[in-house]
Design a protein that fits this description.
Elements (H helix, E strand, L loop, with lengths): L4 H25 L1 H12 L5 H37 L2 H7 L4 H42 L7 E8 L4 E9 L4 E9 L7 E11 L2 E12 L5 E13 L18 H14 L4 H27 L8 H27 L5 H24 L3
Antiparallel strand pairs: 1-2, 2-3, 3-4, 4-5, 5-6
Helix pairs in contact: 1-3, 1-5, 2-3, 3-5, 3-7, 5-7, 6-7, 7-8, 7-9, 8-9
Amino acid sequence: MKIKVLDKYIFQEMLGPFFIGVLGFMLVMAVDLLFTMADLIINKGIPFWAVLKLLVYKIPSIMVLTFPVSTLFATAMALGRLSKDSEIVSLRTSGVSLFRIARPIILIGIAISLLSYFTNEKIVPHANHVASNIVRQIIYKQPLPSVQENLFFKDPYDRYYYAQRVDAKNKIIENIMVYELTNEEYPRVILAEKAVYKGRIWQLGKGVIHKFDNNGYLNYEAAFDSLELNISDDILKFSTQKTDQEMDSGELSAAIKLLDKGGSKTNAFRTELLMKYSIPMTCFVFALIGIPFSLPSPRSGRTWGMVMTIVFMFTFYVFASVFRSLGRGGIVTPFIAAFTPQITFIVIGSILLCWEGRYK
């Protein structure tokens, strides 16, 4: 399809500010990390190559966070430049509707959202995993952080383990599920509130064992106050296992399916899975919100519009953070937690755009 002159013109106006925004916001967000890295090199004797490698693997996650703000910045700069030279006024008085002017901006917002999704799905999980291992093994020289949450792993004997919380300092595991494949059609599942471990021996307390018949119905249940479990390896060797922030959507889906079979709560994993789709949508949301506030208006000055844009941006992030916590805690459903902020602000942005579109 042939690109219209107006679409190409606005795209060119947004391209430069977008890349400048990504670079600028990345530097701002990396300031604290850079100070930490300088201290590691100078005062702690960490090799420069290790610190440089950590910085490289931190870049993708930082980049994804900058995409929405950079989209908003590019929208404001492009429309601001067109407004300053009275090109917006000329277009609208010539019969070009606001919706026609907004179309390339919205399409660019969608394109950046797709780029954000690809980066967040294919690059960020692996980069986060490698960065975490660098911090633990090279910088802090610890096999496992003192407290780690949502640990999920598999041993060589077709046994799957899930631990909600592992306190390596006190050698305590909380809320454990062991999912063991057997010769029978359905697995045996062991649930326990707590365990104390020493090497490969786990001493489980206050738990229950479930077995199922060939139809999938529970046919055996035995509660226990104490159960000794001999696992295949020391849990400290599972320090390289991935957290929910280090999994792609396929890995998260597999973890959710396994935990569902074992009867464990999956709110945190389900929320993170859906946020892999909702977070990239933020680029589109910010492009939509930025359009009405970046236009010249006889009712309010452009400065006021920019202030309102910044207010909306911070309100969105607070809103998204609160709903993410509600979803992980099971207070609201994962879908509501992941998509309510985006849907709410899409509605608000659409209303504001339609309101501005009423005026020539």
